[in-house]
Amino acid sequence: MPLNHRPRGRHALVAAATALSLILPSATPLWAANHPNSRVASTHVLDITANVDWDYDAAPPTQSNGTTVLTKEVLRDQILREVARSVFLMTEGRHRIGTVYLYKNGRFGKNVDVQIINKSDRSYASAARWQQSEGSSYNFLAMDNKPENLRSYSRVIAHELGHYVYGFADEYREEGKALNASDPGGPSGVDFTRNSIMNNHENFTRLSLAADYTGGADVNNTAQARVYATDRSNLRGGSHWEMLTRDPASDPAEAKEFHGGARVWFDAFKGFTAPTKVSELTRYFGVFCDPLLVQAACGSGDASKDQVVPASDRIASLNDYNAQLFAKSGGSATADAVDGTPGSAFESFKVVFVDSPADAKTLALRQSTVGTRLAVSARAAATSAAVARHAIVIDRSLPAATFEQAIQAAQAVLQLAETGTQWAVITSPSTGNTPLQSLQSIDTGRAALVASVQGLTRVDGRFDATAAFALAQAELAKNRADADSATIELFTGQGSTLPKALGSQARSLRTSVNAIGLRLPAGSSATTTSGGVALDALASATGGSAYSARDAEQAVKKILRAQRKAAGEVFSLLATTGWDSLGAASTQSTPLTLTPHDQVISAHWNFDPVDKDRLSFRLVTPAGTFSTLSPASNLSEGYALIELDNSSGRHNGSARALTLSSTAVSNSVGLDVQTESVVQLSADVEGGTLADNREPVLRAQFTGQAPVAKARLLATVYRVSDGVAVLSDLVLADDGQGVDARADDGRYAISLKGLLPAGDYTVEVHAQTTADSVFQPNQIFAIGSDVPVRPVGAGLERVEEADLTLDAGATGVLAAASGDSGSGSAGSTGSGGSGGCTSVAGQHDAGLVLLLLSGLTGLWLRRRTQARRLVSR
Asked: Which candidate, 104, 401, 699, 709, has a CA 20 to 30 Å from the CA of 88?
């Protein structure tokens, strides 16, 4: 459910560097359901994000295993509107669904709240992951190869949102499954069902109450009670309504382990007196007893195992049921409430089809600047009416050397900005109460934006983040449409802390913050705020990303990674390699293994344009040899791209990317091969610095629709100063031992304690599945039974890189050996002076050229002095 596209830029340098940015693997976990549009819009209104795995603007597909045509109207009126109804009814109107931001072709992958998947499988979700770093809900339109009734399907989604948003456990019985004492949140065969939507979504619209749990531990035995009951001996005090209105800090230990401290206590339930019995519910009306179904709720089940609905609450007629359903949703017995009806389930409801095309004039303009891709999801983003809005915020009080890096990075980001985007520039301390540059189209304002940043000088004073963010938000809000995204790109010092309120304010305004903390010279102090939060906490609160950077090169690379996440791109790297030079009549073969998980294969070559007539390129797969370049290629700018659609699987198996030179090539050539795939690898390093004084640990996460367990992950560590591999074949483990917290959860780790001296490093992680590798669901909750463990298949490969800085004196860091670069203040890569360097139309500055190329090209360029293959297979 991924996509990727970065259009060619305005002139040669920008276009070449922009093309190079295609090859960047993202170090940010792209399966994080922390989208900036997912928010509490007001006390009683939740805005959510969703995607579908088809193009809702093309010919609509037929529901899996069924006949219903999945038009936009069906999506809006029969699925998402009914989800809104269910959330309203089950929360007694305390929560409504407001705006649903809906993306097509799986855009944003797992970084949405609701995935609508037109396949047959069990729907499932992660628990208590609303606005958290991982998790989503997976909602399949068919189960056991039978299509879901769409009303029932909408309640499937509501059930899964119960897990995902509120942290509910289940109240159904799973026949034949033994109770696992170490997993109290898993339903078992001894469970006594409750009359709630977390038991049977087809029958019930309500949540459980205290009166549902008045018996002893034997009849109160549900997953919900085992997790949330405060009276552990009788399993009482843990119904849905009791937990909803309770501070998570007062949850029992079992619940805290279950939700990992991530359960949200929503304002809508604070100070609210929870209903304790059915007669106190205002939105519940009973159960439709379909005579064709055997339903325990209607008296035809086993009363010794199932809670039974009183006869007075059983509704025999569908017409009577709908009359009650409409009335309790805010309509009348004869008519459902219309959207916008005050007090109804639909008072704030609307669906924004974010990726629907712009009008014909705007679409023609954008298509003239965007290369065609096989990945239709990328075209959706490129041709959407939505506009990406950005405000760069620069801390002018940074030390001179750091300020130089910030200015260079900001200029490079503006040079690389995509056609059709809008940008503003804000500074603090400022010279007035207006932006340095107001929000404007990059198409007409690039030169002015870059020049304004180039002309900045450092000033003494204090960085006022509150005032700067207020100016940025005012610019981003100008004529903003519902579908438009908004991002603040912040350049400040490493270790800065900013007011916590900025994060919640940005989230409320649907604005993500991508923060870069640049390294400060020794003896310098970061901007701090009393009671403030670190940059990573601030960014995470907004659905954005935060990184530390040692210099402008690294800052540019990381900002672009963050922007790719914000654009919904979810590509993975299959291979990265490069050569310092090539001999005459030479052929360099880069082996690949393509699997059913690799949907679109793209090979990206980057080279000096002077060599364009000496080079040619091929992709060889079991389906043949392919040499046709994508229209996004531009040999005159040193960029070649070949793409293959592998959705049918015709290219699966052993493949090769060929780089051929007819005559000698004395300049570098680089190759990155990407895949559009739901299976992702990310890597990061924690600790090893004075600011984060834990032992250094390399962590990687390998996941698809469930974590990938029992894979083989190896890492190589390269020294930045000279590209030398200083550690190799480091084995990352997922065995629950040492620094790995839990076995078989797709999170792999290795301690670097005592292995490296202080300095700057780049780490490459290579993941490969074996015959034993499986998709292993952990802490996810399915309707009906557990999500099965499924084999991944051998041979799937992913490559990822992470940056590592180790400080002298930090825990687990060796004393620097003689000749090592250490981690002192960042050096300058520009032309000197406080204004940095620039490149505007018709002008190329060598400093910026090197910055763009070294910052945006793959791992091979930063190790090019070694002239070695980087990924051996």
From this structure: 104
Classify residue 297 as exposed, middle or buried by CB count within 10 Å of its CB (0-12, 13-18, 19+): buried
pLDDT attached to residue 54: 93
Which parts of the chain sit beneath pLDDT 50? 1-32, 359-383, 818-847, 849-850, 853-873
Q: What would the pLDDT profile of 755-795 be if each residue is shown by its tens digit?
A: 999 998 989 999 999 999 999 876 555 555 566 788 999 99
Show the beta-strand stretches assigned E in 313-368.
Answer: 314-315, 350-353
Strands 615-621 and 653-661: antiparallel
Residues 6+ apart with CB under 8 A from 868: none
| Cα distance between residue 824 and residue 830, in whole Å | 18
Q: What is the dihedral of CA 5, 6, 7, 12, to 10 degrees?
A: -150
Please give the Cα distance from 126 to 259 (Å, whole number). Answer: 9
pTM for this prediction:
0.84
Give the HSE-up count for residue 415: Cα atoms under 13 Å, Cβ half-sphere: 35
- Which helix (H) or strand (E) segment is 396 a member of? none
pLDDT computed for residue 292 by the predictor: 64
Rounded distance between C-alpha atoms, residue 555 and residue 562, angstroms = 11
pLDDT tens track for 338-392: 999 999 999 999 999 999 875 433 333 333 232 222 233 333 333 468 999 999 9
**Tokens describing residue 79:** 């699925």
Strand partners, 487: 390, 512
Q: Retrieve residue 340's tokens.
A: 């916008």
Residue at token pair 């301690």: 751
Q: DSSP 3-state assignment of 131? A: coil
- ∠652-654-655 over CA atoms, to 5°? 90
Is the bond leading into 429 cis (omega within 30 degrees of zero)? yes
Distance between CA atoms of residues 202 and 199, nearest Å = 9
- Measure the CA–CA gap between 770 and 206, rounded to whole angstroms: 45
- C-beta of residue 350 within 8 angstroms of C-beta of residue 100: yes
Angle in degrees, 0-180, between the axes of helices 552-566 and 400-415, rounded to the nearest 10 = 40
